[in-house]
Amino acid sequence: MNLALWIVAGLLATAYLFGGASKLIMSKDRIEAFGPSSKWVEDFSPGAVKAIGALEVLAAVGLILPAVLDIAPVLVPLAALGLMFVMTGAAITRIRRGEYRYMLVDLVYLALAGFVAWGRFGPESFLG
């Protein structure tokens, strides 16, 4: 179970590090140009898109570094919980926009973050 949690946390961290960094680096118009799955940025200001990117990068770091450095490892499940909130917001945005096809990916990320939060708060806690 511990290995599965590390793998899922690593995959999530990689995805959110690159996704969040791209939101921080690129303009809103460039993000929107990626295709139909990126049209959600129309609903947000450039500052809000940057804030979402910053939250994703912080969560990616929080999924790995606290456990690796053994400094406040309780931050790992908290980072996963934060990602669950971000992905809940993403799913709500998709529902509001009628983008049900793209919402499936958001729900998969939500479930994976939930798995890490559950595992690190519960059976494979770093505190136990």
From TrEMBL:
State the protein's name: DoxX family protein
Question: Where is the chain membrane-spanning?
Answer: 6-26, 47-68, 74-92, 104-121
| Protein's organism | Catellatospora aurea
Query: Pfam families from the xrefs?
Result: DoxX_2
The UniProt keyword set, sorted, is: Membrane, Transmembrane, Transmembrane helix
Q: Which branch of life, at top level? A: Bacteria
Please state where this protein is localized: Membrane
Please give the chief subcellular localization of this protein.
membrane
Tell me the membrane topology, using the record's own terms: Multi-pass membrane protein
